[in-house]
Amino acid sequence: MTTTADVVVVGAGIIGSSIAYQLSRHGIRVIAVDKGEGPAEGSTGASSSICRCRYTNPEVVRLAFYGQEALGNWSEFTGLAETRSDIHRVGVLWMMGETREKVERDVTRLLSQGVDAETLGPDDVTRLFPAVTNCAEPFDLTGEVEHVCRPGEAFLYEPRGGYADPVGANQDLIDATRASGGEIRFKARVVEVLRDGERVTGIKLADGTSISAGLVINAAGPWCNMLNSMAGADIRWALTPTRIQTIYRPWPEELGPLPVGMDAIMGMYFRPESAGQQIMVGSVTAEDEQEIVADPDNFKRAPDADFTQMKMAAFHHRIPSLEPRGQLTGIAGLYTINREDVHPIVGPTGIDGFWVANGFSGHGFKLAPAIGSMIAQAISGEQSGFDTDVPMDFFAIDREPIDVDVKSVLA
Ligand SMILES: Cc1cc2nc3c(=O)[nH]c(=O)nc-3n(C[C@H](O)[C@H](O)[C@H](O)COP(=O)(O)OP(=O)(O)OC[C@H]3O[C@@H](n4cnc5c(N)ncnc54)[C@H](O)[C@@H]3O)c2cc1C
To answer: Is it true that 2-85+165-236+340-395 and 92-161+240-338 share their CATH fold?
Structure first.
């Protein structure tokens, strides 16, 4: 049996479901197919879903801001009366060991793109988050060098930043797509990308059915390279599924509020979880983004003992009054890292009728609303009130690598 759509999106994670929603909102007949049993079985389900806007490039700052504010107005954005997600605006505190001058320059840069940002002094950090030390002296995690705390000069703070629920947001976008007339099918694995000569004409599913479409968009996350091979698309970018670990531990309420902490001094980030009863800790170092996974269906899901130990030691230094007790758990998921510039590729490939939205590295959750918007604008030629002003070409497959300060999740 063959059905027909204007666009088939392969993958209904946060990226595919955002694309499907925006397309159906623009009146385009879309079918998104996903091999999973339900939403968020890929990278999205493991996401820390932090929304912060400090990026090197003004365009990425605006895309991240778009995502953050979309989540802040999620009911209006999705058109759903009731949503599962929104954003917990706990604020994002950057602990980078930078001079006041550098922090103030970055604050000005963010403000110029419409993002709320402030410079905090060390005493402001203590006042807002009493449990968090304002130390800016790197800590020797081997324990060989004695540590003496030294207050940092300045800290960048994004008061409207925070985190969301990745599975809830994914489900919301699926509901929103369906409510706008789009179709999303689970248990629908693409086994072939159909071609007529040089042109892609649709996809074939494992159950033998086909969907013909004028355009197929690869939003298959860590499986993207398999889809690109099926389509015969020669992608010059190295997009590598990479194992990324996060740790969870209980958070004692009496220690007060925690922001999202981006702590380059200690090589980690942290954020509240489970309505503040837990915290989640992950890594911000490029060294922790090197474990390339050959098969995205088969990798170690539990965190490593040495990773857990190092990140917990770092976290205990940042929160000196935290008692070392309570069960530690964790998970590992996959970033699909674009090794050249840690930014995605989005839009047409060399194959007619075949587009990509791949390689989101550690940024795909917050960028997803804007990616849907830029793709829908490019296809429909229309711009609506709630659309990003950054054109899809910014991530074009034939672009030069984007300049970034660091080639890691902190890009
Ligand atoms: C531990 C971790 C922490 C993160 N933290 C953050 C963060 O704080 N902030 C942030 O912005 N980003 C973060 N990210 C990154 C972000 O989560 C990802 O960039 C994003 O989820 C990618 O979404 P996706 O839809 O491209 O991929 P996925 O969620 O993997 O979706 C791809 C979908 O494609 C489907 N698929 C694959 N092959 C086929 C096929 N042949 N047929 C049909 N369906 C197929 C899969 O089933 C899957 O559901 C984090 C990621 C991880 C792993």
So the answer is: no
